[in-house]
Amino acid sequence: MNSLRRTLLGALALTVLKPFAALAAWNNDAFGAKSAQDALKGIGATGAAPSKDIVIEAPQIAENGAVVPIEITSNIPGTTSIAVVIEKNPFPLAGKFDFTQSALPYVKLNVKMGETSDVRVVATAAGRHYAATKEIKVTIGGCGG
Amino acid sequence: MKRLSLLLALAFCVPAPAQDAKKEIQKYQQMIADGSPVELFEIGGEELWKKPQGPKKVSLEKCDLGRGAGVVKGAYARLPRYFKDADRVMDLESRLLYCMSMLQGRSAEEATKRVFGNQDTPSEMEYLSAYIAGQSRGEKMAPGTTHAKEKEAFALGEKLFFHRAGPWDFSCASCHGEENKRIRMQDLPVLSKPAAARPVVATWPAYRVSNSQFKTMQWRINDCYRQMRMPEPVFASEATIAVNLFLAATGKGEPYRGPGTKR
Amino acid sequence: MAGPMKMRATLAGGNTEVRVLMTHPMTTAQSGQPLHFIQTVTVKQNGKPVLEAQTSQAVSRNPVFSFRLKGGAKGDKIEVSWLDNKGESNRIEGVVA
Hints:
The structure holds three protein chains of three kinds. Chain A has a domain at 49-138: Immunoglobulin-like (Sandwich), CATH 2.60.40.2470. Helix content of chain A is 8%, strand content 42%. Chain A has two helices and ten strands, in the order βααβββββββββ. In chain A, the strands form two sheets. In chain A, strands 2, 4, 6, 7, 9 and 10 form a six-stranded mixed sheet that branches. A three-stranded antiparallel sheet of chain A has the order 3-5-8, with no helix packed on it. In chain B, 42% of the residues lie in helices and 8% in strands. Chain B is built from eleven helices and seven strands. Chain C is built from no helices and seven strands. In chain C, the strands form two sheets. In chain C, strands 4-3-6-7 form a four-stranded antiparallel sheet, with no helix packed on it. Chain C has strands spanning 6-12, 15-21, 38-45, 48-55, 64-69, 77-84, 89-95. The radius of gyration of chain C is 14 Å and the shape is elongated. In chain C, 0% of the residues lie in helices and 53% in strands. In chain C, a hairpin with a 2-residue loop joins strand 1 (6-12) and strand 2 (15-21). Strand 7 of chain A pairs antiparallel with strand 4 (48-55) of chain C, so a sheet runs across the interface.
């Protein structure tokens, strides 16, 4: 398959704080929470029911905690939001992704993990919350060179 | 990350056999390589290649990396090699220094002032290495092995590979000379054997996710010497080029996969 | 000062795959240096915001994100922008290949 890739480099833009019109304010409380419970409370996603319809694709072992790749798909119909919580991180909430009708409830991202921990993904659909968990072991690799 | 705590040794905590660990680590390596910051370094390198610099205000675009002036495609896979104009064997970085001097009029002092960068500010060499190496994707590794000076360099590199020195009496072979050895979770390839050397030379230089640095071959070799507690080699010295040639030649024939992404 | 971004948007299985690479230190509180990290990422498809992310210092340095948009066609305009805690921002535009 011939995929013609055209990319444009973003221009350097240093702007004074002026949020884009559509943005929700960054959730200080949730991101500042020091426990997974408080973080989820902060985004109003407590009481999640375990679900097998959230797929977390990630290695069981990360060679280094600085970059841990996680790929998430929610197969729950009507998913509008996915939150990623790293239980043992000092600030467990790593990210929250909000999808309009035009986006699929899917994201791949790289996160920092301070140590081996459960990674909990909470999906929200029609006001209800669902969760799946995966443990990722964090190691320090090689000889550092 | 400074406070990266905890090395989990699978042998102690989880009864998973070694094979599973290997598979999961491979998955990790695959996932981090898919969409790596390496591409940003390649872009930065191309810009630097075309940027007029030095007293002569000239870009590097006429630099001969071995395939003719300005030919970048496939050049990295054919390094290190002998260059007639300099009458010596050169690797990528020494050749870049040569062009910086000859074409751009830059002094050796200025051009080597900051050859190794850091996570916030990569050095020129890192960007240029990424770009030039990236242009050899798919090419078979074919460093110079026939010229008399190339043979000499190979022999020197091989000797250095096995030469024990320093306070720990280490050689490259101390870590990379025996099968089935590892440091923490990383398997150590026996780099003096083609089968192990091939996938290695096919994926360096590389971006290290653990410190967000793009490690060029000169930097990687420098680090090896540091880890062996040996005196720091001079940048682009005959010794480092020789070791580089020894590794590249041992891994020759392997299709180059492009700058790698490593832990 | 914002460093380079790169984006690739392609059609796959009837949907639009967007992969974006960003240059950013994503400095954490633990590092002892001032906190500096991307807080929001916005994805637009043909000018319309379709995905919004709020991110933390736990996202890795030089973030790489992959997103998927429903449907889509060659030539669709995709824009990804970010805003960090210091008010710095960057943006990239591209077309679906």
